Amino acid sequence: MRGRSLGRLLWRRLAAAAPGLIGVVVVTFCLMRALPGDPAAYFAGNAATKEAIEQVRVKLGLDRSLPEQFLAYVRDLARGDLGQSVTTGQPVRAELFARLPASLELTLTALLLAVAVALPAGVLAATRPGSWMDQAVRVVTTAGVSLPTFFTGLVLVYVFYYLLGWAPSPTGRLDSLFPAPPRVTSFYLVDALIARDASTFGACLRQLALPAVTMALFVMAPLARMTRASMLGVLGSDFIRTARASGLSRRTVLWTYGFRNAMLPVVTTLGMIFSFMLGANVLVEKVFAWPGIGSFALEALLASDYAPVQGFILVMATLYVLLNLAIDVLYGLIDPRIRIEA
Amino acid sequence: MRWTHTILSALVVALLAAPPAALAQGRADTLVVVTEVGPNMLDIHAPGANRPSYQASWNVYDRLITFGAKTLKDGSKMYDYASLKPELAESWQMGLDGMSVTFKLRRDAKFHDGSPVTAHDAKWSFDRAVSVGGFPTFQMKAGSLEKPEQFEAVDDYTFRVKFIRKDKLSMPDLGVPVAVIINSKLAKQHATAQDPWAVEWVKQNDAGGGAYRIEAWRPGQETIYARFDDWKSGPLPKIRRVIVREIPSAGTRRAMLEKADADISFDLPPKDFAEIVKEDKLKVTGIPIENSHRYLGMNVVKPPFNNLKVRQAVAHVLPYEQVFASAFFGRGILLPTPVASNTFGYDPKLYPYRMGDLAKAKQLMAEAGYPNGFETPFYLDAGRATTDEPAAVLIQEALAQIGIKTTIEKVPAANWRANQGKKEMPLFVDQFGGWLNYPEYFFFWNYHGQNATFNVSSYVNPEMDKWIDAARFEADPKKYAEDVREMQKVAMRDVPRLPFVQVYLDVAMQRNITGYQYWFHIQLDFRQLAKS
Amino acid sequence: MTAAALRHARYVVTENPLTLVAFSLLLVLLLLAALGPLLAPFDPLKSDSANTLKPPSTRHWFGTDQLGRDMLSRVIVATRLDVAIAFSAVSLSFVMGSLAGACAGVFGGWTERIVSRLSDTIMAFPLFVLAMGIVAALGNSVCNVILATAVINLPFYVRMARAEANVRREAGFVEAARLSGNGTMRVLAVHIYPNCLPPMMVQASLNLGWAMLNAAGLAFIGLGVRPPTPEWGILVAEGASFILSGEWWIALFPGLALMLAVFCFNLMGDGLRDMIDPRWRT
Question: pTM of the predicted model, to two decimals?
Fold first, then answer.
């Protein structure tokens, strides 16, 4: 029973997501073709003649009509070919997948950090509504979400690297004098643990610290608020009153009954936040020279190099769909009511 | 809760743990270079190869000849374009009629894969350079090296180049980065029918025989070079390993230099160099880039800038001093005339206008028929925005005084070439620099009626062409000097462009780095550096 | 507004000091936006090569930038542009999104399908990147920044309006209106739509902050207003290159101004929510 309803849920969600993805492909294609600049001229290189540029244009297939180009693009997509970057000359798929772990590692670390701070803060605020602690949590989290991430990143670099010297230079995932840990998952932290290499682990963590904090500051607000709201709602409900009246300890009431039930909307928020972060890390990656897909897409966009940007958007959109699916499944596992409805 | 406690403690320990001793040792025999952008491909003949790829090419590949060095008054070293020295070629002999040159290649040179370097590799490489099209072919043409028939492998270690005309640039052209000697046997293994020159393979792999091998290449992150210990074409370099890290933020690059996390860098904004010089903790060399200038260009075939009086009015209000101080922080030479300060024919006295003469400018505008001015877009290359945007804003302010209202448009760096080619920009800031340090070479690409891409103003004037063509092939030194002077006089009378600065190539390095030498290609030559 | 409503408003504002702070900040912001150029001590566009990169002093409270322009004046004058961008983008988004959502909620069928597909497409994008793409494709101008920001905010309003309209479609007063002979369009315009608005207004004020950060983020990467126009994001971008060489004031003051404005909008959103429907107090 459970497998079938879960499977049906998955199918329904995938079918619902498909038109969205198709829309993304079409809109991205149109936007990228509208970018100013002539990739043929860039690709043909310095001092190319008009004939040379035309030759390159034909080679890149840019002389054909837009619908033809779109069909060619879709055909390539079906084969898994995301095109080639004009500026680096590398196939986009290879580059994206080489750089994706960097972005994921940063985003996940930031998310973990945000959860570690925001969830307890939200719970605390919910247990003491209206107190100064509640107000403080509200102010701090609202302040965090009001800061532009690029500004926060800059200030943190200035204070912790330049002035205090505590943080290492913001030069990416690992200082180049440290060899990268042997690749198992491409997540440096995990790989360093697997290789039992404490010094590399420490070095990776040090490089991750500032960018992760920058991103975490930004997403703490929605998490803390959602936790607080959800906890407040649950703590005011009947079954909690019953639990309290039955004489269960405060801790049991709060954690076993309150927290677990309050987590559902928080999980949804987490999912939304994660996908938001994947797109918004463009600015953080720029400030910290993080070799992720965000900085890759940004440089490509500014160079009118359309293939990487198209690839990036597609990968993000797909990740978003998969993520929402995973959340729905998680939801279904946590809350039996959802499963039965599906 | 106990396990959270353990994890937290572990995290704290890891964060505070100092880097191991191995890290410190590694720094001592490795040179760390920080730069904004690294090579986008390893093959200088591949279309779209960016400027940093010339650095990879220069150090990973040999050329037939190289240039000697000279020491300037302030002790800094630069290449000597008048002095050709052996590299792959041990010696050479000009043909009796001056229409050819025969090189004797050294017999002990090897490529990185161990195979010997022969004249057949040279022939293949030069054929490739003139056939592959784009920038390499264009650069070879600048020295009248145009057809594969000009190159001949007489035997395994003798290579002849035949000239199709007497061009004083032919010999120096053999020492430019494009004239590399590639491991043809290795490359040919990866050639295909669609790609006979194996461009696809060579642009991702090391097919060279130069002083350094590519140890690792991670585009967008870093390039690691390791010394090729069997290199015979010159004295063995002292630095064993070079790491070039790509750091997009200039502030970070500077901070790394100041904290000694990096050894050398040359692409910082001029303000940073001005401050580093003042702080005096690092060594800074600043040499004006030869045969180059930054200029304000105007389109001379379309109104309103097709009117000479309008252009001359602009000359009278251009805020030279202010731009030089505020946008370039004095890191360069204030240059109002087209020929650079370290190029033959430099003469700032040839500037005929009075700077900052607002009244005269207004009068000229009225005479031109624009007493109330006009509106125009004003373009600049976003890749040079650090200096060009403040310069443009200052120029914008100055032009507003005579009624010219401009809207600044920043064009992404990748699109700038296309904009240059279209030649539709009425007003813009641009830069040109030539590898071969001859003024007529510069003028040929920027002012000649052949209307090359770099003549963005579309300036065509038979009078100017006459002087340029004369200078290019003039043998008599007195007549040559006069040709160059006349060229400049016409350029300053017609002012299709207003040069305003010749920028320094500023390089900052730790005090224990020695041997730095300025090269015309602007890139670092690792072979000459040493770290004590 | 009735006396009771005013009393309720005053109660909410005074009970929660933060809301009071937010409203005061908003007033200051709007004042600066309206009177900006008049209040600025110097011409924000005038360069002064004798006074470049000077730290904050009694003459230049916020210091000067690379061209000697007074930072205080630039930050004040930028208020107008940033506030205008935020309000225009959110208004545009609000109007289009709520209309589309309300129609979808009321008419259902194909209208609903098309609207929700479009909305899903937008939501499937990493939103900031979509804004980047739109401005890069259409060109650097204030209009395009507003358009891009409006587009990426649409889905929120569409979804909210649709949900609200759906709920009210079956409500008693709507039935009554229909029975008394009003056509569907009139019912939508007069009865359903106005009632959907209050919850969306809260969302709108929260979006104001986000729209401002968006515009600033776009300017930071070079996709925004053209120089020399002062705008907080561009000012931070300009200052970013100076922060590691010690000239911290060029980036700090615009950054703080941006943060304060966004902070104010966010707190105001909370205050509005408390005022309109205490049930939603979080």
Answer: 0.84
Is the model's pLDDT at B386 over the cut of 70? yes
Sites in chain C below the pLDDT cut of 70:
1, 9, 12-15, 274-282
Average pLDDT, chain B: 90
* The two structure tokens encoding residue C182: 């009003």
Non-local CB neighbours of B353 within 8 Å, separated by 6+ positions = B312, B315, B316
Subunit contact A176:B32, Cβ cutoff 8 A: yes
- Set of chain C residues whose Cβ sits within 8 Å of the Cβ of B267: none
Q: Does C227 touch chain B (CB under 8 A)?
A: yes
Which residues in chain A are closer than 8 Å to B219, comparing Cβ atoms? 88, 90
The ipTM of this complex is 0.78
Predicted local distance difference test score (pLDDT) of residue B121:
95
CB C125 within 8 A of CB C142: no
Tell me how far CA of residue C163 lies from CA of A61, A234, A327, C104, C175, in angstroms: 45, 23, 22, 9, 18
Q: Residue A5 and residue A338: Cα distance in Å, rounded?
A: 10
**Residue C219 is which amino acid?**
A
A90 has a pLDDT exceeding 80: no
Closest-CA residue of chain C to B409: C226
Burial class, B423, CB count within 10 angstroms (exposed 0-12 / middle 13-18 / buried 19+): middle
Please, what sign has the CA dihedral across residues B414, B419, B420, B422? Answer: positive
Q: Cα–Cα distance between C20 and C3 in angstroms, integer?
A: 19
**DSSP-based three-state secondary structure for B180:** strand
Residues 414 through 473 of chain B touching chain A, CB cutoff 8 Å: 414-415, 417-418, 421, 452-454
C-alpha distances in angstroms, B122 versus B88, B153, B233, B309? 10, 8, 15, 53
The CA distance from A202 to A186, in Å, is 16
